[in-house]
Amino acid sequence: MRAPLILGGGPAGAAAAIVLARGGVRATVLERTRETGDALCGGFLSWRTLDALARLGIDADALNPRRVATLRLFAGGRRREVALPRAAVGVSRRRLDTLLLAAATRAGAAVERGVAVRAVEEGVVRLADSATLAAEALLLATGKHDLRGLARPAPREPDPALGLRVRLGPAAAVDVLVGDAIELHLFDGGYAGLVMQEDGTANLCLAVRRSRLNGGGTDALLDRLGREHAALGERLAWRCGGADAVANVPYGWRATHGCDGLFRLGDQAAVIPSLAGEGMGIAIASGTSAARALLAGRGAATWQRGFGRAARRPLALAGAARALAERPALAAAALPMAPATLIRLIAGGTRIGHDA
């Protein structure tokens, strides 16, 4: 087998590289950044994802020694806490990506940094310096960023989603507020997720309908949300720096078919609404699963259809939860009546199977 090319060194690409290297195939990972940054991400790793990472040689304590044990929901002035099915972890993408790429290198994968891919045309990869590369298998792991020639369909929503991320702290007051919880703050037209990370800061990610900007900027939006929602405002008071943003996030999209020679991984395979906290789970599951399929000689098109089927239920359940989250008055009315077991079942049902 000619060495596969993995386009992107995030969780999906690094996980694929590790599994391939362990199987005796030395893939080449092309990563556009020279240094590992902190990608816009919710920073939540579920219990199933932690199990998958352990199989890749990444220990949970190396990611973050503290655990997330509780789901805390805020909606319409109401608050509800439910224990998670199992302990989870909050972690920055800088820490996760660094550990995964180091593990890929130790396993024998070739990782080339500072290599920007501009397009893929008829199976040929064109780089920023006009050089071209070809491989029998391409693993597309570019996350939210589309490549020319392989772009996902543009979102068709009349009011598309905008993803935002801000840091809170580090401060002891933030730690006390959030504690061992993953928080979800629901508001009209969006929601915010908050979790403590390994560096003592809290990672606050929001999915907001574009119309909520009301012609203003992201800082004005955050100030407005803080005034409208007391608990969220108490936390936003500790924000440091500006907001990172990504536009037109195609939540709910999944690849249901493919072509041989091309494996779509991570957000290129399925984009789950961020309130599920399963984006990185899908990335790692898709990377390991695609690598196993490649080692077994299964075609990429067959694998892509199978992974699309596996992602259907988590995406559908997360989409229904997103629709409810964006109507906080309805969610607030349902919170006191929803049994804890049902909330935990939804939390478990939005996880991807790592044997997909």
Automatic annotation (TrEMBL):
FAD-binding domain location: 5-122
Keywords per UniProt: Monooxygenase, Oxidoreductase
Family matches, as InterPro entries: FAD-bd (IPR002938), FAD/NAD-bd_sf (IPR036188), Geranylgeranyl_reductase (IPR050407)
Pfam families, A to Z: FAD_binding_3
Record has Cell inner membrane as a keyword: no
Domain of life: Bacteria
Molecular function per GO: monooxygenase activity
Descriptive protein name: FAD-binding monooxygenase
